Amino acid sequence: MQPLTISITTTCVIVLVVLVNSSLFNQSFAHNHKKVQYPSSSSLVLGLTHSRTFLPNVVSKLSSRSSSEYSSTLKPLEMLDMLEPLREVRDGYLISLKIGTPQQVIQVYMDTGSDLTWVPCGSLSFDCIDCDDYKNSKLMATFSPSYSSSSMRDLCTSSFCTDIHSSDNYYDPCTIAGCSLVTLLKGTCPRPCPSFSYTYGAGGVVVGTLTRDSLRVHGSDPSVSRDISSFCFGCVGSTYREPIGIAGFGKGPLSLPSQLGFLQKGFSHCFLSFKYANNPNISSPLVIGDLAISSKEHLQFTPMLKSLMYPNYYYIGLEAISVGNMSSAVVEVPSNLRDFDSQGNGGMLIDSGTTYTHLPQPFYSKFLSMLDSVITYPRSTEHERRTGFDLCYKIPCLNNINSHEDDINLPSVTFHFLNNVNLTLPKENYFYAMGAPSNSTLVKCLLFQSMEDGDYGPAGVFGSFQQQNVEVVYDLNKDRIGFQPMDCASAS
Ligand SMILES: *[C@@H]1O[C@H](CO)[C@@H](O)[C@H](O)[C@H]1NC(C)=O
Ligand SMILES: *[C@@H]1O[C@H](CO)[C@@H](O)[C@H](O)[C@H]1NC(C)=O
Ligand SMILES: *[C@@H]1O[C@H](CO)[C@@H](O)[C@H](O)[C@H]1NC(C)=O
Ligand SMILES: *[C@@H]1O[C@H](CO)[C@@H](O)[C@H](O)[C@H]1NC(C)=O
User: Fold this and answer.
1) 332 and 270 co-located in one domain
2) Contact status, residue 124 vs residue 262, Cβ threshold 8 Å
3) What integer pLDDT is reported at residue 28 of this predicted model?
4) Is residue 14 part of a domain?
5) pTM metric for this prediction
6) Per the database entry, which stretches of residues form a coiled coil (predicted)?
7) Residue 281 Cα, ligand 1 centroid: separation in angstroms?
């Protein structure tokens, strides 16, 4: 998870060292992939809904330097007539997991920026620090292992245990668990995997234990489902600022697509527009497996780049951003948005767990200057100060939020990714109304954020807000990511 202003994100910045022999891993789990009744077991279509919740506290700025470092803080605001939160917001797209016997239904964020899947555990004892606004949220369903007859702690000898402890010594989790040297050498130590802590880039921390239980996932059609009898996930008893569970969609062995057996294929999603936030009646498809990547040749594909530092996450290379139709209005991006240094720093992470796209300084400021030079509306510095966004405009409208002229007069923004892939963003993916019209004026702010040009971690993050109404295909077979603007509600 990468961290943000006004949003928390879920990019995991801990490095999980994978010591697992992946073929062994596949063997030991292959028999668990049962399908229920479906003509093809090679794909799974889940429903994604959009959720938006507010966190207390101040706006934080993304820093790639350290998971706990926040700069630029704004005081929480008295809300005016604002549609857009001025406080920190946790946005994300949810899927449902059915865990245990009998099944308990838990909704979790889908996060391409981490591997671990975890759920809040222990109904009354689950403790979320700095999550006050969530306390009465019905999303805060927790999993109770004691009510599941199939729940068990993972063991220290499990490859997942080694993975989560990021150990460079295969024996460490068992040493921590207090195994004797004899059982340790024989690999027969029966002790449970020691508890873990998992830190996200935005500063969120979760502490829990690795648990195995049965998992069922299915979409709107309940006859299409997938079961795993011994799914490994985090049973999390306490968190800092992470009130809702997370399904990791990274490439590590712990991730949900990995454990479902779809990692060699891929997945695709089409994120609903934010106007459907918190509407449980509408969902868009999250496709996992063959169906996600077949018949997609009409999409534009950009290569997946590989960072040595975070090999389990998805990186793409940004070459330029252009503003409007003028070929002159191209902002050249620094090379660290498409290249890594020898340690694997740099690159642009594509992360469904980060809300707004983050661009490094001074490139971010150049991009804003370019936009401001072609936009003729008056700035609203008051909104800029209040929201923490850097570019807000007063746009005339006719008392009706749907009849403003901005669609014509705000410039288009196109991201140019490697391999000649041009993604022209839908306008609502970057200029967002900050409130209802007032005095025949609507204020819209640019929802991009700057990121310190640190030399550690990713140089930029392509977030979920900029992925609304775009089909995004993660083709893990060919190591490429495809884009195509579309109306995701119509695909629901
Ligand atoms: C969802 O559908 C139910 C039943 O049709 C309806 O009562 C409810 O208002 C809808 N919710 C939203 C947010 O549209
Ligand atoms: C951009 O080009 C399109 C089609 O060529 C045109 O309709 C539109 O008005 C142009 N927009 C700007 C801002 O020049
Ligand atoms: C993408 O944009 C660049 C720069 O405007 C242009 O040269 C290129 O032809 C475009 N590629 C496609 C496939 O349209
Ligand atoms: C609304 O517009 C009128 C006329 O332009 C102006 O006098 C008034 O101060 C404005 N009110 C607010 C609250 O901005």
Assistant:
1) no
2) no
3) 26
4) no
5) 0.83
6) none
7) 6
Residue at token pair 């490094």: 360
Q: Which of 420, 421, 424 gets mutated to test ligand 3 (max ligand atoms within 8 A of its CB)?
A: 420
The tokens 């350290």 sit on which residue?
66
For the chain, percent of residues with pLDDT exceeding 90: 47
Note the ligand closest to the C-alpha atom of 319: 3
Which amino acid makes up residue 298?
H
Q: Are residues 303 and 418 in the same domain?
A: yes
186-207 pLDDT, tens digit per residue, is 888 889 999 998 888 777 889 9
- Residue 327: CA count within 13 A, CB half-sphere: 0
Pocket of ligand 1 (CB under 6 A): 279, 281
Angle CA 443–444–447, to nearest 5: 145
Q: What is d(CA 90, CA 131) in angstroms, rounded to the nearest whole number?
A: 11
DSSP H/E element including 119: strand 118-120
Taking phi over 0 as left and psi of -120 to 50 as alpha, with beta for the rest, 6 belongs to: left
Same domain? For 303 and 278 the reply is no
Structure tokens that stand for 115 in this block: 């591997």
* Residue 424 domain flag: yes
Range of the domain at 87: 82-286
Residue 347 lies in a domain: yes
* Comparison of pLDDT for 85 and 44, the residue scoring more: 44
Closest CA to 418 of 377, 479, 375, 328: 479
Q: Which two tokens stand for residue 218?
A: 């299915």
264: number of Cβ within 10 Å: 11
- Model pLDDT, residue 224: 77
Total domains in the chain come to 2
Q: What does the alpha-carbon distance between residue 194 and residue 173 come to, in Å, rounded to a whole number? A: 7
β-bridge pairing 348-350 and 460-462: parallel
Q: Is the CB of 71 under 6 A from ligand 3?
A: no
Ligand nearest to the CA of 322: 3
Residue with tokens 């996600």: 292
Buried b vs exposed e over 326-336: b needs ≥16 C-beta within 10 Å?
eeebebebbeb
